[in-house]
Write a structure and sequence with these properties.
The protein is 3% helix and 43% strand. By secondary structure, it is mainly beta. It folds into 2 domains: 62 residues, no CATH class; 277 residues, Neuraminidase. A 7-stranded mixed beta sheet has the order 1-2-3-20-19-18-17, with helices on one face. The chain has a 4-stranded antiparallel beta sheet with strand order 4-27-26-25, with no helix packed on it. The radius of gyration is 21 Å and the shape is globular. The two termini are 42 Å apart.
């Protein structure tokens, strides 16, 4: 029988064997791996990570303290390869880059939130064509924030028109797809041979809706939290990243990140140790008015990269932190060379794309082992 709660505490401030408060048996395999890997927080490879891993009702709650598992052993450096959007009089021109996705040939489809156009670029960033635009007719977009390329077509979550728009690789228009289960599609992804459509503010239903490749509804993932006061819709404000083994839900206005398996179970809940002064109401609940997270992306190995706001300047959002697939903080990875980015995306080869709004940059991450 699996115990309801199992805790490993590795916040010991010195080298040596940390103290344990444990349920002797019944840790799941994943919990056991995480617990064992954190037994000695000071050994090489554990770096500056301190924290707890707690299992409750099958969910691993990870409390991250310190600088991270890899902070003393691995250094990541961002190396830009090219930037587009800043050539005087040239193309492309962007108002606010919101997303990018890729076809099998490596062509890039960039969604501009300002004019709701999709710009197709070659793998080296050269302009090919542009299509869509603001409107209500099929082939137009309204308040769209995400597109995904799947099986030869580009699918865009058309929030303003309450449907999924479908385009060919050169902008050919196909009949849109209506989703009776979801009034306002927020984000859209194709992973695990299925479509996943996110709901940005979750007052009812589910955070994510799963469809097969023919758009047959399969199920909802991660039910809405009970709504007890008028600020709960803001507490649910989220963005989603797909991973090899599930979905990460990153809460924009809370210090909270969850990992959901493909079967819909919550696997991990994690957060960073923040010393920010979050406002709270009379009942001790956080008032959701501080933008904690800006964007997220998952690399091909399943590591989660998250852009955090800067508490010294709330207009700034360029500090990127890396979490492992187990939810433990690996390190502060790097600071983006732009002041504020609300977009982060890996391609299948592990290149990282980011934007300051009017430009799109492709970069590679170089890693080196630090001497012990």
């Amino acid at each position: 029988m699996i115990p309801a709660t199992a805790v490993v505490d590795v916040r010991a401030p010195r080298c040596g064997r940390p103290s344990f408060r444990r349920a002797a048996r019944g840790l799941t395999l994943v919990a056991a791996i995480i617990a064992c890997s954190g037994v000695t927080a000071c050994r090489r490879g554990e770096g500056g990570w301190r924290g707890t891993v707690t299992q409750r009702a099958g969910v691993l709650f990870v409390s991250n303290e310190g600088t991270g598992v890899d902070a003393h052993s691995v250094h990541e450096e961002l190396k830009p390869l090219w930037t587009v959007g800043n050539a005087p009089g040239g193309r492309p021109k962007f108002g606010m880059v919101m997303w990018a996705d890729f076809d099998r040939n490596g062509n890039i489809y960039v969604l501009d939130h300002t004019d709701q156009k999709v710009t197709k670029l070659t793998p080296d960033g050269r302009f090919v064509t542009q299509f869509a635009g603001v409107g209500a007719a099929p082939g137009s977009l309204s308040k769209s924030r995400r597109c995904t390329f799947a099986e030869g077509k580009l699918y865009c979550a058309d929030a303003g028109n309450h449907r999924i728009e479908v385009f060919g690789p050169s902008g050919e228009v196909f009949p849109p797809i209506e989703l009776p289960q979801l009034k306002v599609p927020g984000e859209i992804y194709f992973a695990n041979d299925k479509f996943y459509v996110e709901q940005r503010f979750v007052t009812e239903g589910y955070f994510v809706y799963e469809y097969d490749r023919h758009w047959k509804f399969l199920r909802g993932l991660r039910p809405a939290d009970p709504q007890t006061d008028r600020l709960d819709p803001l507490r649910s404000h989220n963005t989603v990243c797909t991973a090899p083994d599930g979905l990460w839900i990153v809460y924009m206005l809370l210090n909270r990140i969850q990992k959901i398996g493909w079967d819909g179970r919550v696997l991990v809940e994690t957060s960073r140790d923040l010393d920010w002064k979050f406002p709270k109401d009379d009942h001790g609940k956080i008032v959701p008015e501080i933008l904690v997270h800006r964007a997220c992306a998952v690399d091909p190995s399943g590591n989660l990269y998250v852009i955090y706001s800067n508490p010294d300047d709330w207009k700034r959002g360029n500090d990127v932190y890396k979490f492992g697939p187990d939810g433990r903080l690996r390190e502060k990875a790097f600071t983006l060379p732009v002041f504020n980015s609300q977009f982060l995306r890996f391609d299948p080869q592990g290149n990282l794309y980011f934007s300051d709004g009017q430009t799109l940059t492709k970069a590679t991450i170089q890693r080196r082992q630090e001497p012990s």
